[in-house]
Amino acid sequence: MKLLKITPRLLWGILLSMIASLLNLYLPLLVRHFINLKQFAWSGLSKKVLLLGGLILIGNLLVSSLSDYLISSEGDRQVRQLRLRLQKQVLRLPQKYFDQQISGNLTSRIINDVNVLRSFLTETIPAVVTGCLTILGTMLITFSLDWKLTLLMLLVFPIDGLVTVPLGKISEVIADQTQSSLAALTGVTSESIKQIKTVKLNKTEEDVFAKNAREINKLYRLSLKGDRIAAMIGPLQSMLSFCLIMAVVLYGTLRVKSGSLSTGTLGAFMMYFFQIIGPINNVALFYSDRKQMLGATRKISEIINETAEETAGKEQLAVAPGSSLLRLDQVSFAYQDLPVLEKVYLEARSGEKIALVGATGAGKTTLANVITRLYPVAAGRISLNGQASTDFSLEQWRGFFSVVLQENTIISGSIRDNLTLGLNRKVTDQELWDALALVRLEEYAKKLPKGLDSLLGESGKQLSGGQRQRMQIARACLRDFKFLLLDEATSNLDADTEKIIMTALDRLKRTKNCGQITIAHRLATIANSDRIYFIKNKTVVASGSHEELLEKVPDYRRYVHEQQLKEKR
Ligand SMILES: Nc1ncnc2c1ncn2[C@@H]1O[C@H](COP(=O)(O)OP(=O)(O)O)[C@@H](O)[C@H]1O
Ligand SMILES: [Mg+2]
């Protein structure tokens, strides 16, 4: 049990609840005393017994309240710590991990499985500790009162065990399946909401509903199973306990009549009987509760034990100001077993614009991902000014690049939130407006009632595709960087707007003396690059200016020709 900790606060809570149990053990003895009194008068012994009883009840109340609070607040504290730890870990897991996960499932693990651990810490452990104490104490006291009646009462153990042990075994399985099923349901639900447009446009509401309904029904069947068991076992347990109580009462009454047992002792036995039923159940269920806890621990540990990206731990390396040279030498990369890049070379300098060109699926985005170290290379070397990329901390290395991804990276929040995402410096409103002007979004933003603070909706739902791309370019330009990396960043823009933005970026490149790496299809976007890297068959097959490549590389000529045909259409 490494995820949960037995802390002093928890121990104090358990100690107090043990004291409460001891007080509870004393009460029946007082009742026995009271019943056995020869006469009742508000004086002497009766008064003492009643006062003591009252004191014990009040003491019990105080001790129990304090104990409950200590234990639950400790549970809450540990849940919080575990959730924080999980969040931190999840944010540091490598991209590769997320490629294989359904985000909803992961979310459910982080939120729901932690609750299983909490209930083990705050319910099972205290209940079992105090339960054992109560059972042991009861046995000691009742044996000393009357061993024959105690033996009869002891029958409660096998009878209760008959019922709770199988119940525990089944509920253990059900609980484990319920957690998995809940994770799956969260997964499909969040995906169908995220992809609602795709669902609507492909008219696949019924299929998606059927898929979600399958998970809901699975969960329902699991609950029903649990309900059925509870419905059978609960009343059966009550009935058996009732029979046993009757047996104790009958036998006890006979003994009272024969004069070998006092009425008070019989009364005390009844109270002890009721007191130990709960603890016996709790102790009997310990094994299955523990199994549930271990299941949740295993799943959470899987996340915690995943190897995280090494984000910290390296000192900032000094990088000479001014011009930089980014270089890839013999770089190879594969997704699991699928080789995508083999022996790629590439150079990008400050003040230069280079382009990566190739058919879809050629590996351009992958190359960009490898450059920014979203994925580690399998072989080869990436370096900045001769210094290997892996000598830099991830944080410092990623700081060299400002990236506009092919996919939508607008977050829910305002224009300001989106533009300043990840910026660790203060920016003035004027800077933000300038960035919007650069991508020609100034007019649009000015018309919004809240200006820079207008909300854009989840993933920028309230923007058009082109506006979204321009917003991402504006965001990229506001950052400090050595290389601007644009992956199909202007593909949704009309040719004129694209030209204006590219010209603005050229100007930015010169004033900031940064490099620009562009991935694009449109010939006008790439033709004026200082160097074009033509990617085919997993590698860079040729590089040079547009004219050079046109002249020397037939494959490139063919690519350009096909592209021209597409653009004419
Ligand atoms: N996360 C991933 N896991 C596995 N394979 C991937 C992943 N991303 C891309 N690929 C595969 O890698 C190849 C190159 O993809 P990509 O770099 O996106 O191409 P491009 O950007 O040139 O269109 C494709 O065959 C694609 O299926
Ligand atoms: Mg791509």
Helix content: 55-70%
Strand content of the residues, in percent?
A: 5-15%
The N- to C-terminal Cα distance equals 65 Å
Given helix and strand content, the structural type is alpha/beta
For the biggest β-sheet, the strand order reads 6-7-8-3-9-10
Q: Got a strand count?
A: 10
Q: What is the chain-wise order of helices and strands?
A: HHHHHHHHHEEEHEEHEHHHHEHEHEEHH
Bound molecules: adenosine-5'-diphosphate, magnesium ion
**CATH fold-level topology of the largest domain:** Rossmann fold
By DSSP (H or I, 4+ residues per run), the number of helices equals: 19
Shape summary: elongated
Describe the structure.
This protein is α/β, with parallel strands linked by helices and 569 residues long. The protein has two domains: 8-163 and 235-303, Up-down Bundle (ABC transporter transmembrane region fold), CATH 1.20.1560.10; 325-568, P-loop containing nucleotide triphosphate hydrolases (Rossmann fold). 64% of the residues lie in helices and 11% in strands. The chain has 19 helices and ten strands. The strands form two sheets. Strands 6-7-8-3-9-10 form a six-stranded mixed β-sheet, sandwiched between helices. Strands 2-1-4-5 form a four-stranded antiparallel β-sheet, with helices on one face. A hairpin with a 2-residue loop joins strand 4 and strand 5 (387-388). The two termini are 65 Å apart. The mean pLDDT is 89. Bound molecules: adenosine-5'-diphosphate and magnesium ion. Residues 99, 335, 338, 340, 358, 360-366 line the site of adenosine-5'-diphosphate.
Could you name the key traits of this structure?
64% helix, ATP-binding, ABC transporter transmembrane region fold, transmembrane helix, 19 helices, 6-stranded mixed β-sheet, 569 residues, ATP binding, ABC-type oligopeptide transporter activity, elongated, binds adenosine-5'-diphosphate, Rossmann fold, P-loop_NTPase, binds magnesium ion, alpha/beta
